[in-house]
Write a structure and sequence with these properties.
The protein is built from 19 helices and eleven strands. By secondary structure, it is of the alpha/beta class. The longest helix has 27 residues. The protein is globular and about 65 Å long.
């Protein structure tokens, strides 16, 4: 199998070829290694490879597993492989190794997937772009001077660039959906607790973080969710293993009540300006759904965007402060001496000054919004919205400027953080951090599933995803709708195909 043939198939397609004997698992493995070695120096998607270990593990794969012999990549964040490096995108953890596999990695192995390496992520997964100081910055395969988004930008670049048919990703505030939108991929954020984070963690960011994948096809995403879902031992979320996600896409969804919104309740207070191409993408998707027979109505979600942004950033600050303590414990380096980026240090300092009452008040607001959205979904089956305010930004465009980094350094001075919080720094942080991506945090706070669908390409050749949110626990409904739109649009034909060498 040459690289061009390899790139012509999604994950299940490759598994079918292997199972039928048309190609061997070794041929697929070799093609994937060639693709990574040839293209990654340009893409910058993969921060480390493990070809020899993966080849040895492949000899022990159950040939009946759904993805037997299919190559993938895991994200350099949370997805630990026992006794192998996992840096969380940070120089502070460059030498750190986990004592054991994460629950997700164990399930990937059981599904037959071959883990060839780890993909780039911003430091501690904190930004909606992937430009860490300690590692190369991945480029967008559609336009190399543009960002693939974040924090799963490395995974998105790897899939869109043809290195692997699917790559693992995580989403704490849009980090699956934003890269999916910028790179023309399908990205599903499952419901809270659907995919286990153990044994290292029970929950991350109060359950806002959920792991899954970026894929070219809906069926790969559905089949993967069948394989990895369900609580692990000691999970705080009692969600048993379920089946039927792949089966759900075998038939069209019933007629749905679709709410369509440009997201102004979420974005207005942040000063967000919606790009005309994003507006067009949402409007075209609404017309397409209407043409498929669904009942479409313009209706905004019942949320206060300013309060939602404040509550999200409040927990974000608190968790980063705790994360830095964990990094310090793992490395035996004091927090004040950690080799971390200025913005990370400053935000961590703000988090350490955050009153516990403010943290708890923010969490209670999450619960209130979740109930408001549950009531909203009694009237509407799904909500159609933008993913991001613009197509993919240029690389470096959203990274903190030198002046802002100097301000961040001042905030890290003892005593300054208390004053900054009193002076309303949290609100300014919210506006600066979320202005370009104010539409994705809602589903993380409420816990409901959401997805990005690659339904539009701008005249300049940049993809634009459209977001769909569903009720808590209804991934089957979202996947069925996604499959219907995939068949209608045939978005796979748009993927960039780097030439084989």
């Amino acid at each position: 199998m040459d690289v061009r043939d390899y790139r012509a198939h999604d994950g299940l397609g490759l598994a079918t070829l292997i199972r039928s004997g048309q190609v061997s698992a070794d041929e697929v493995f070799d093609a994937s290694c060639v693709a990574i070695e040839a293209q990654n120096p340009t893409l910058g998607a993969v921060v480390r490879t493990r070809f020899e270990q993966a080849r040895e593990e492949g000899r022990r794969v159950d040939p009946a597993a759904p993805f037997a012999g299919v190559p993938t990549l895991t994200k350099d964040l949370l997805m630990a492989i026992g006794d192998e490096p996992l840096a969380f995108g940070s120089a502070a953890l460059a030498e750190w190794r986990s004592p054991e596999d994460s629950s997700l990695v164990r399930r990937l192995r059981e599904a037959g997937l071959s883990i060839l390496g780890q993909t780039a992520t911003p430091e501690l997964g904190l930004m909606g772009i992937t430009e860490p100081r300690a590692f190369p910055h991945p480029v967008n395969p559609w336009a190399p001077d543009h960002s693939p988004g974040g924090s799963s930008g490395g995974s998105a670049a790897a899939v869109a660039g043809g290195l692997v048919p699917l790559a693992m990703a995580g989403d704490g505030g849009g980090s699956i959906r934003i890269p999916a939108s910028h790179c023309g991929l399908f990205g599903l954020k499952p419901s809270r607790g659907r995919v286990p984070l153990g044994p290292m963690f029970g929950e991350v960011w109060q359950g806002a973080v959920v792991e899954h994948a970026l894929t070219r096809s809906v069926r790969d995403s559905a089949a993967l969710l069948d394989a990895i879902n369900g609580m692990d031992e000691g999970s705080p979320w009692p969600l048993p293993r379920e089946h039927g996600f792949l089966e759900a896409i075998s038939r069209p969804p019933e007629v749905l009540r679709v709410a369509v919104s440009l997201g102004s309740p979420l974005s207005a207070s942040l000063g967000t300006r919606l790009d005309p191409e994003v507006r067009l993408a949402v409007e075209q998707a609404a017309r397409r759904l209407d043409g498929l027979g669904h009942h479409v109505e313009w209706a905004d979600p019942p949320v206060d965007g300013a309060a939602l942004a404040d509550s999200y950033l409040t927990l974000y600050l608190g968790h980063l402060a705790a994360d830095l303590i964990w990094v310090s414990e793992q490395t035996d380096v004091p927090v004040s001496k950690l080799d971390i980026e200025p913005a990370t240090r400053a935000i961590g300092r703000l988090g350490r000054c955050l009153p516990a009452a403010d943290y708890e008040t923010a969490k209670r607001y999450w619960n209130r919004v979740a109930r408001d959205m549950a009531a909203f979904h009694r009237c509407f089956d799904v909500l159609l919205m933008p993913v991001a305010a613009t197509p993919a930004p240029r690389r470096g465009e959203l990274y903190p400027t030198p002046a802002r980094e100097r301000l961040m350094a001042l905030l890290a001075i003892p005593g300054a953080s208390h004053l900054a919080l009193k002076a309303g720094m949290l609100k300014r942080l919210a506006a600066d951090s979320l202005r370009m991506t104010p539409f994705t945090q809602l589903a993380n706070l409420t816990g409901q599933p959401a997805m990005s669908l690659p339904l539009h390409v701008t005249p300049e050749g940049l993809p634009v995803g459209v977001q769909v949110l569903g009720p808590m626990g209804d991934e089957r409904g979202l996947l069925a709708l996604a499959a219907q739109l995939e068949a209608e649009v045939d978005w796979g034909r748009h993927l960039p195909r780097p030439p084989s060498r």
